[in-house]
């Protein structure tokens, strides 16, 4: 084999490895991994409901929340909201396929209210201290 043939084989091998790596990243993932990629910090709570779940993360006085849909598919109305005590809520709502959010709010040491919905079903955390 001459040097150009070896380079072609090496280039083909690198291309195959790159393609397989990209396909593994683009494939269907789990909901927890997707939420962790969207929000930084440690997971403090999950609020499940019949059509999805809200994942709540906390880091240095900030709270991040994401609403994940159970069954992915066509667009559906989804929302997620984080509201610190005596503050305006951070909201993300609209027609989404996979998730609503992330939304982040500074809570410091205050109580927080987290809500999320997918379609006609929703969940509400109540005022909680994280």
* CATH architecture heading: Sandwich
Could you say how many structural domains there are in total? 1
Q: Count the DSSP helices.
A: 2
Structural class label: alpha+beta
Sheet with most strands: strand arrangement = 1-2-3-6
CATH class: Mainly Beta
Fold and architecture overview:
Keywords: Signal. It comes from Streptomyces vastus. This is Secreted protein. There is one protein chain. This protein is an alpha+beta fold and about 130 residues long. It has one domain: Immunoglobulin-like (Sandwich). Helices cover about 25% and strands about 45% of the residues. It has two helices and eight strands; from the N terminus they run ααββββββββ. It has helices spanning about 5-25, 30-40, and strands at about 40-50, 50-60, 60-70, 75-85, 90-95, 100-105, 110-120, 120-125. Strands 1-2-3-6 form a four-stranded antiparallel β-sheet, with helices on one face. Strands 5-4-7-8 form a four-stranded antiparallel β-sheet, with no helix packed on it. The longest helix is centred in the N-terminal third of the chain and has 24 residues, at about 5-25. The relative contact order is 0.18. The model is unreliable at about 20-30 (pLDDT under 50).
Task: Record keyword descriptors for this entry.
2 helices, four-stranded antiparallel β-sheet, alpha+beta, Immunoglobulin-like, 130 residues, 25% helix
Short description:
It comes from Streptomyces vastus. The protein is an alpha+beta fold and 130 residues long.
């Amino acid at each position: 084999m001459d040097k150009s043939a070896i380079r072609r084989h090496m280039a083909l091998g690198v291309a195959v490895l790159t393609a397989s790596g990209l396909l593994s990243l683009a494939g269907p993932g789990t909901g927890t991994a997707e939420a962790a990629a969207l929000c930084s910090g440690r997971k403090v709570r999950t609020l499940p409901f019949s059509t999805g779940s809200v994942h709540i993360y906390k880091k240095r006085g900030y709270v991040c929340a994401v609403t994940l849909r159970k069954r992915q598919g066509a667009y559906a109305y989804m929302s997620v909201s984080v509201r610190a005590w005596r503050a305006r809520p951070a909201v993300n709502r609209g027609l989404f396929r996979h998730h609503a959010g992330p939304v982040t709010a500074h809570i410091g040491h205050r109580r927080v209210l987290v809500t999320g919905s997918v379609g006609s079903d929703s969940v509400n955390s109540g005022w909680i201290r994280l």
